[in-house]
Amino acid sequence: MKFLVVLLISLQAVSPLWAQATKQGWNNYAVHPELVWEDFKGKNPNINTTTAAEVNTSLELKWGYKTEGTEIEFIYEVYALQNPNASWVEVTQKTERVLSHEQLHFDITELHARIFRKWLSEFDYLNTRNLRRQVNRKYTEIKIAWKRMQQEYDLDTNHGILFKEQSLWNDKLEVLLEKYSNFKS
Q1: Predicted TM-score (pTM) of this structure
Q2: Which ranges of the chain does DSSP label H, i.e. alpha helix?
């Protein structure tokens, strides 16, 4: 007898969106890793901001287990997604420099998806007393690290304005994505 239990955890502070993501037109990094301006369909929610653009990304996890007889298999999928309807750009700010800065935000999301995939691939689920607690604990750690890196990136680069710092971050992400390339989407 086979059965499958699937639990959905959103690594974003809002409700779980994984199941709805593709239905609502979210971009999956595995399929659409390079952002283009057409991926920024939303409206700036803050008319008093000086920010040129904002990309909305999310980490999503789908996991569960499958049993067949006495065999148990832990299964999971981790996604780096981008929501075009919540991502926006000021019309006068559509430059390659701004797009490149926003692209790195999406790359940071993919980096953390890869880090999570690595952890899940090494996770000893058969010898874990509380599978859900362990996965949730790691989910929380990844979520905190992901948000911290996003904030650090914007602070260091002043939202892409500081050329030298932007270049350093571009190089840093290139190295980190390569380090976890075995765990890409």
Answers
A1: 0.86
A2: 18-21, 96-122, 131-157, 163-179
